[in-house]
Amino acid sequence: MARAAEGLSLAANFTGCRQRLLDFAARARLNLRALRPHTGTTSMTLLARRSLLLLPAAAVLAQAVPAAAQTPAEKALAESGPLPENSFGSASAPVTVIEYASLTCHRCRDFHLKTWPAVKQKYVDTGKVQFVFREFPLNALDAGGFMLARCAGEKRWHAVVDMLYRTDDAWAHAPDPLEGLRSLMRQFGMGAEQVNACLSDQAMLDGVNAVARRGAVAGVTGTPTFFINGAKASGMMTIDEFSTLIDPHLAAR
Question: Which CATH number goes with the domain that contains 245?
Answer without folding.
Answer: 3.40.30.10
